[in-house]
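Researcher: Structure prediction, please.
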Amino acid sequence: MKSNYMECQKIIRMLKHKEFIKVSHTGNCFEDGAAIYAKEIKENIFLLFVILKDIDIENIQALIAHFDCFGSIGLKEPEQIMFYLSIKDKNDLHYFEQYLKASVN
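Model: Predicted structure follows.
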């Protein structure tokens, strides 16, 4: 059985391969130490994956959100959240992986 750490590393590799950009954050929207990966999917609409610092499977979040620009991610709250998924178990991780694959189509 794979460890949660290995699953998270697999997800990070997949995000980088799918041209997601790691975003640094200095605002209050995300927990300190969170790794944020973002990709614009439509004008000012972004698909974000937030991986919290303890790299535990229960601490991965996916969201589609509207920001006024790419530079706002990590600084300001999103103007609107259109989709949110919190990964809590292996079934959620499977759904997450399917959603990520579909997001490139």
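Model: The chain has two helices and five strands.
Researcher: Thanks, that helps.
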